[in-house]
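Continuing the series of single-chain predictions for the mutant panel. This is the parent chain; the variants come on the following pages.
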Amino acid sequence: MSTMKVSVEQLSAIERKVRVELPQETVRRELDKAYRELSRTVKIKGFRPGKVPLDILKRRFGTQVENEVGLQKVQGDIQAEELRSQLIELQRQHTRVEAEADGEGEARKILIFFEVLGDQLTPTDKTALFNILRQQDKIEALSSGNARVFITPQNASLQLDVES
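Parent structure:
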């Protein structure tokens, strides 16, 4: 099923022209539904309720039904798109908060490690030791099955990705 296409043309600094194209099958399905509903409720002289022929309904109410169906469909699609964009924004914010929390946790771990070592080593030696111990943690995670191995031929290095 194809989706709604929207284009916006800037006419001036404060004026825009919005063009909305709806898929033909969607419009046809919605029009059929609207004409069936109209047929049940409309009262036209000479016809019993629910028995008005479709061609008469189209001649008499065609433009009005098409406008209403188009407007309802566009409004529904716009609302759905707004909800999707809000959901994406919430997911983005959640991911950012998670990343910040992970980063803070890692920074806390490094800070505690450095504090435990005190002034016995230089900052460069402390960093090197921390990285060695981190690799050992990853190797343990790999041996327990909680990590994956990535080998990159460009620099012939081994990267371990620990799964939580």
